[in-house]
Amino acid sequence: MSGRERVLGRVRRALADVPRDDRPYERAVVRGYLRVHGELTAAQTVDLLAENLADYRAVVHRCAAAETAGVVGRLLAERGSSSVLVPSGLDEDWLPAGGVERVADRAESTPRELDRVDSVVTGCAVAIAETGTIVLDGSPGQGRRRITLVPDHHICVVRVPDQVVSSVPQALERLVPDRPSTWISGPSATSDIELDRVEGVHGPRTLEVVLVR
């Protein structure tokens, strides 16, 4: 008997006394939890997002829509970036006119090629104020998951207040369940047994979030 057969046998025995017309799981489990915690205005929700992003060591910038390309261009220049990875569908108004090589998001790109790119600019699907989390789901303007994991510098543009929600339940309502999502709370970081924090181990060392109103 294989391991698979043993596991399935245990499942069948555990369900032997469950009637076939038993209530589905979705109706059997009470889901009366709170969707939001307190009442915040749109401006207060954006402020909370900025505060929690900064608490996770993300660098937060704010600007008007017309200023986005200038801010992104300044961040690339300050970083000394000579190349930037641009996912398909990214808003052209978010990028500076020149001064940096644009690299397309290609399925055939190798990890080594992605590692040579200095920065990546993406949009997002939604941002969660209570947790300081940016969620990407691979939609146009966000690209493949790996482009935000290999390059060392990630600039993420968030449209506020439209893309900002207070809580995780509200964010889940906006996401398509069958799309792979990446949840980002600050730059990639880990700690060893002595709690020494190391950034950039399994993702960008620097996360900059541009809140565009």
SSE arrangement:
Layout: H1 3-14, H2 25-28, H3 42-55, E1 59-63, H4 68-79, E2 83-86, E3 101-104, H5 111-115, E4 119-122, E5 126-128, E6 133-136, E7 153-159, E8 164-165, H6 168-174, E9 182-184, E10 189-191, E11 197-199, E12 206-212
Parallel strand pairs: 1-12, 2-3, 2-4, 4-7, 5-8, 7-12
Antiparallel strand pairs: 5-6, 6-9, 10-11
Could you please describe the fold and organization of this structure?
There is one protein chain. The chain is of the alpha/beta class and 213 residues long. The chain has one domain: NagB/RpiA/CoA transferase-like (Rossmann fold, 3-Layer(aba) Sandwich), CATH 3.40.50.10420. The protein is built from 6 helices and 12 strands. Strands 1-12-7-4-2-3 form a 6-stranded parallel β-sheet, with helices on both faces. Strands 8-5-6-9 form a 4-stranded mixed β-sheet. A hairpin with a 4-residue loop joins strand 5 and strand 6. The longest helix has 14 residues. The model has no long low-confidence stretch (mean pLDDT 88). This is Lactate utilization protein C. InterPro entries: FTHF_cligase-like_sf, LUD_dom, NagB/RpiA_transferase-like.
Count of spatially separate domains: 1
- Counting DSSP H or I runs of 4 or more residues, the number of helices is 6
What is the overall shape? globular
Radius of gyration: 21 Å
Tell me what portion of residues adopts beta-strand conformation.
15-25%
Q: How many strands?
A: 12
Structural class: alpha/beta
Mean pLDDT: 88
* Fraction of residues in helix: 25-40%
Low-confidence regions: none
**Mind telling me the CATH class?**
Alpha Beta
Helix and strand string, N-terminal first? HHHEHEEHEEEEEHEEEE
Q: What's the name of the CATH homologous superfamily?
A: NagB/RpiA/CoA transferase-like
